[in-house]
Amino acid sequence: MKFPSFLAAFSLLQVILLMPGLCARKTDSCGRSVSYPTLEERHSKDYCAMYDICGQRSDGKVLNCPYGSPSVKPDELFSAKIQSLCPSISGNVCCTEDQFDTLRAQVQQAIPFLVGCPACLRNFLNLFCELSCSPNQSLFINVTSVSEVNGNLTVDGIDFFVSDAFGEGLYDSCKEVKFGTMNTRAIEFIGAGATNFKEWFEFIGQKAPPGFPGSPYAIGFKSTVPDLSGMRLMNVSSYSCGDTSLGCSCGDCPSSPQCSNSEPPSPPKKDHCSITIGPVKVRCIDFELAIAYILLVLGLFGWALFRRQRERILASDREPLLKSIDEDEDEANLSNMQYDENFALEGHEVAAQLKNGAQLSIIQGYMSSFYRSYGIWVARNPTLVLCSSLAVVIVLCFGLIHIEVETRPEKLWVGHGSKVAEEKQFFDSHLAPFYRIEQLIIATLPDKTQGKSPSIVSDDNIQLLFEIQEKVDGIRANYSGLTVSLTDICLKPLGQDCATQSVLQYFKMDRENFENYGGVTHAEYCFQHYTSSDTCMSAFEAPLDPSTALGGFSGINYSEASAFVVTYPVNNAFDEAGNGNGKAVAWEKAFMQLVKEELLPLVQSRNLSLSFSSESSIEEELKRESTADIITIVVSYLVMFAYISITLGDAPRLSTFYISSKVLLGLSGVVLVMLSVLGSVGLFSAFGVKSTLIIIEVIPFLVLAVGVDNMCILVHAVKRQPLELPLEERISNALVEVGPSITLASLSEILAFAVGGFTPMPACRVFSLFAAVAVLLDFLLQVTAFVSLIVFDCLRAEDNRIDCFPCIKIPSSTEEPDEGMNSRGPGLLARYMQEIHAPFLGLWAVKVVVIAVFVAFALASIALSTRVESGLEQQIVLPRDSYLQGYFTNLSEYLRIGPPLYFVVKDYNYSLESRDTNKLCSINQCDSNSLLNEISRASFVPESSFIAKPAASWLDDFLVWLSPEAFGCCRKFTNGSYCPPDDQPPCCSADGGSCGLGGVCKDCTTCFRHSDLVNDRPSTEQFREKLPWFLNALPSADCAKGGHGAFTSSVDLNGYESGVIRASEFRTYHTPLNRQGDYVNALRAAREFSSRISDSLKMQIFPYSVFYIFFEQYLDIWRIALTNITIALGAIFIVCLVITSSLWISAIIILVLVMIVVDLMGVMAILGIQLNAVSVVNLVMSIGIAVEFCVHIANAFLVSNGNRDQRMKEALSTIGASVFSGITLTKLVGVIVLFFSRSELFVVYYFQMYLALVLVGFLHGLVFLPVVLSLMGPPATTIA
Q1: Which of 145, 476, 682, 879 is the most exposed place for a label (fewest CB within 10 A)?
Q2: How many angstroms separate the Cα of 787 from the Cα of each of 343, 347, 377, 412, 715?
Q3: Running DSSP on this structure, what letter comes out for residue 1010?
Q4: Nearest-CA neighbor of 568 among 610, 618, 612?
Q5: What residues form the membrane-spanning segments (predicted)?
Q6: Gyration radius of the chain over CA positions
Q7: What confidence tens digit (pLDDT) does each residue in 425-464 have?
């Protein structure tokens, strides 16, 4: 929230100095110097340097008489009044009652800033008490100039001789005192941010022009006295802020002994362990993995040499036996070449035996038996199977009439039951929802030669800002027949002015004030004096920190800023359904239209850049994205259709092309994939589950890429069957051959996708479940509808009917009529696998190199994976051409202030018997380890705590507001009702007229005397009665601690009468957060801090910031990722083990899958892809997809016979071509289309990651896995 200001009196110490003196020169009432005889000077004890009031300036500030006189003994009542404010002064005094009343009236403006630290307040009051009323005033005060006002001489300048010891003591006791309302130090307001006592004194001593706050005459603070002058330094004892009797809190006095024993803030986290080797510095994990790899490679080479030597010995000793074995193997190979024909003719009674006599597992035997029977039945009843399967899916598609698309970011990216979501709901319902943000960033363009952006702070640019503001103020939106303007919806902490954060606030948002105040010079003045100058106060009566309205500067060099940041805070309604902000949304749409149509061309015409955003921008851009990639989707399906048609068909022969082509079959397969996606979406929509844009745009690609694989494998398996067999047998044998591996691959994919349902992010969880059901439906359609379509296509080809026009039949020719599924000759790819690829991998040197290279990449990927950052850049979620892309870039580049941070306290017991108050507050008598003291301490190490400032504390301000010392704050009329400060109505006229002491508030008294309080703490009843007074009290010069505006929504008063405040917040700021890692680390640091404090104080405290809800998932994203990956691998291992009954082959498959996932994470690090729910789901699903690259090869190896090398070569020869063309290339074609998506999210997380998966999976499935199987695959099991 933006905070009120009461700055008209923040330079009050300057006004306080209305004191006495003698002079050596004179100026007239117009300020001109005139000659004047030197008055008699006397500097002695009990003598005054100036006494009484002799006039006043044109702005009403009183001026003292420059005449010395003996000190005066006050009457008893006056003496008591002086003692109440200045206990160090007793006896005679050098001030009249009018002077003392002026002093008291002015210091009461400073007291609320300092009363929380009694030592600072006492030192501060002593300085001005000695200056105003000390009986020995002449000893350290010397009048240096006088002026004539209405014929009377008045003081125009003095020298004040103060010892360095007192100055240092005063400054040291006050330098860390906080002004909680503004999250800053009080010295920023009462000392213009002085860094030592000399700078503070110089600020106090400046003479203010008429009408400006400050001293009416100049004061020169001196630390040495002239020789022989008889003067001495004012050296009243100063109190340390750690004094036992006047001690301050740890937040106001970190150096006090009781605070020095407190636990220091945690230091910044150290860098990762590293080792220095010469000039090179490497991380420990990299070094360890390098050593492990070297040892592994050495062991591998040693083992390879040993095996080669052993084989040579065996070869020389058993050459006759090996020759015999070779002859047997030749016969076996010949038998293998004749497998298709022989096996098919044997019949299907031997369900548990394959071509080489390999023994199948029990599950595989049952599956083979099922697929054999099922294949025959489908071939006999293709129409029934096709119609019934399509009918089921079409019924599911009817659920699409209930489809809804979720675009609200908080519903997409925040998990149900999220801790932060619960905390946000608590914050919004008990305190107030965080306001909506509408923002403009106007920046200068970088210089083409130097590359540096020039300053934007110029007269012309500020005038441009006024022009922009006038157009924004002129926006009139329509909402249900009502006209909505900015003033109707904007945040108004005080009065009727919007809390717009803009440089124009230094001119009260009024163009006429621009010239009157001095143009850009005034703005630059306000950059440094925004806390202390009345003319710099904003139109909404608060100081405007320039860091909130400027960007692109370093340190506090605001004049070098290269950007204006204009922020319009808009009230936010708490509404679970999201319908309470209709007016704001309507205005935001009109605002965005104005920016795009008028403001953007206007700013660009001035050679400036403009980026912009509204609260609803992200949601609107996500909606726009839903239609952005329709063309991409259509093109992808067309490309896939074309590829399938070519892949499924036979080698083109011009004479029979119209028969052997598979265009209609390919088209049917694509339609089945589309139906499976629609069926999945329809099923979930029927149950009220909303879809997301990721589902609409990505699942079609994903299921298409997965589904086409099995289509190709099925068609190729049918084409490998002997022509002599009837169609029923060919379909049956094909299903027996590839059915188990297809089932294994599909089950693995479904399980892997379903595991993504454990991801907490709703968008990714729903995506995973939709994908799992879509893949399941696609698998069922493949083994039902698509098999039926294969039967129809075979019948079509056998009947010489044209592919795309099956009703047209051509006459039979003398050529072989059975084309289509009946081509038996191996293709080019199959010949490559059999004659080149497999023999090449069988070479020992190649095996060693393959193992070494793949293990090297796996170990390197492990090292790289530790560099993967968590997060999801907002720009990636949006379309590439979104205007928000530039906005988020500029936000990181120019913003110099972090997001607000709230520490929320639940169930605060404010009763006098409870210690909760002292556990929370940070003024005197509060616990040293209180919440606010710990926040202040944490702000000293922002690099690790991410806390930029001490917290604004309603509790501290309330206790100070109640304090009898703050006599201008908590006051009451004689009837006991609230009495406002003297400078507010009804004590002061509402039109800004004079405020006299004799008005309706003349009888007001402070709420309490010290005797009414218990250890300066209110009783339970006093707390309960006065808290609403405080929260409704307007801040002003006489009492800057009023809580209205600053703390209006900081306390939940519902049910507080019971003595317990259910919710209250203490507000501070995070440091500027530019990277996703900064946001995650800031949330983690705040969580750890709150947890530690909650345990220490035994209170319920949690941190809240508006961005937490989107970043909570990243706190344990690595745990989520590893857990889901482990579950997916475990599920696939069980499926493999059950189906293959081979622990050995299942372990090898899992090993390869682990390496694929690890390599994929290494690629993520190389490409800069972050770890988030999207990439976690991708990693989990990549396991299911990668199974296809492995399981077919492994299954073919398992059911083959011979030694390991022979079985590896046979597996590649049999199924390798199908894996490459039917799995690798189909996925490659489907993925490449994603590159043309307009959404960066799909390009990064789907194109790049899935392309990497396809390449890595292909290499592991067709290179690494065959080598591993040839070296350590399970032995063949044969039937005796």
Answers
A1: 476
A2: 22, 21, 11, 39, 9
A3: G
A4: 612
A5: 289-306, 630-651, 663-687, 693-713, 767-792, 841-864, 1117-1140, 1147-1169, 1175-1199, 1211-1237, 1249-1272
A6: 42
A7: 899 999 988 889 999 999 999 987 777 889 999 999 999 9
